[in-house]
């Protein structure tokens, strides 16, 4: 059999690539290894409406709640600082199974053929090899996620190093709709999301998301920091720090996935007829935790630029979110170092603590690190500007 | 809650053929002495354990996160996906 385009992986990136490719009139095959789209995928997950609506008609988007309030927490052993923001963008929480199924259905409606329970095991020339046989394709789009076995086997990228990868662990707890709203002080479909940056017991980033009938919580633990403490013990510690939040409710699901913190442009996004998108080239913004947005953008851009490798890479760099990710690589690498991570979390907490108690003497300690801070600030300005 | 209890919340369909294997047990012994076997430390599903000097891989429990092969200092893990959509299937994700 012959297709114009074969897309590997019906995650958010692959489904949008297939959707757009089919819309453009290409005969498109979308291959997913899981029993259904989304069944192998993990996210918190919070998405920004504008990230999706630029590329997909969002009518019927299966969201859980509309996030009306984001709580940002900086926490050390000694104390913690909480900030609350009303987001300007429209944010939703989604569950990946529903969200990915919805996106894959859109691709099917546009004319793409979806085949599930099938793993692509190789790409040789214009042949795409699967467990159930081979197909021919002019173009292959690899939207295979962070564990990108194919992209690696094709030499388009290497394996991530421990210091370039975070392990995300997640738990979902059942709760009635009323109970969710009561515990978070919410009404109707309004939702809340938490981001927690903590150095205790080891540096990690935590999250809490409200769904319709459940609450999800989780942590991202840098793989280079795993010493002595297992990542799920960090999750345990985070959950117990939330005390009453999920008390009395039962665990519905436990899951985990690697989050890439390096990639494009040092990983190749395109090679003649093979295009790579999303997590497979590390398009996650570690500063805002946005991975779905850039995954969708890159899936769309790959299908827009079939036959024009350089055009795709250029389009990626011109995409605002992707370009910010690329510019922030150096800074993120610096901030993920354990000593820097600890330093800044403590600085923020000490600053607020000192300010509230009227005693800023603790901050003297930070004076000796002025140069490092200045360097990070300069890197940070490069990310903004 | 123990990891085994957490894994009960997942739907698994077992592939009879293991999708994870270690290439060389001798390297694992060396790794255990030198690095304390990072695969054991990192795995969220307790797939790896030492039993009588051998690294045992309970691949049936794997949640397919991809972390173990990144932390293995000897690139000693053969990591494939379970075949035909077998392995885990999430309800939320
Ligand atoms: C715990 C956690 C929380 C997160 N929270 C957020 C959040 O709140 N907001 C956000 O925007 N991002 C979040 N992210 C990041 C986000 O999940 C990813 O950036 C996003 O899923 C990337 O999409 P993708 O399409 O590139 O890859 P994926 O969603 O991973 O999809 C890849 C697909 O390819 C399939 N596949 C892989 N190999 C093959 C093969 N050989 N053959 C066939 N099929 C294959 C897989 O089964 C999968 O369906 C989070 C991640 C984690 C782990
Ligand atoms: S990390 Fe690699 S070498 Fe070390 S014990 Fe595990 S599989 Fe063996
Ligand atoms: S992929 Fe993840 S769950 Fe599976 S064995 Fe490796 S570390 Fe454990």
UniProtKB/TrEMBL annotation, chain A:
Q: From which residue to which does any coiled coil extend?
A: none
- According to its UniProt record, which cofactors does this protein need? FAD
Which keywords, in A-to-Z order, does the entry hold? Answer: FAD, Flavoprotein, Oxidoreductase
Q: What is an example of a GO molecular function annotated in this UniProt entry?
A: oxidoreductase activity
Which InterPro entries does the record cross-reference, listed alphabetically? FAD/NAD-bd_sf, FixC-like
Record-linked Pfam families: FAD_oxidored
Record keywords: Oxidoreductase included? Answer: yes
**SUPFAM superfamilies hit by this protein:** FAD-linked reductases, C-terminal domain, FAD/NAD(P)-binding domain
The protein's matches in PANTHER family, at most eight in alphabetical order, are given as: ELECTRON TRANSFER FLAVOPROTEIN-QUINONE OXIDOREDUCTASE YDIS-RELATED
Under what name is this protein listed?
A: FAD-dependent oxidoreductase
Q: Which organism is it from?
A: Stygiolobus caldivivus
Its organism's taxonomic lineage begins at: Archaea, Thermoproteota, Thermoprotei, Sulfolobales, Sulfolobaceae
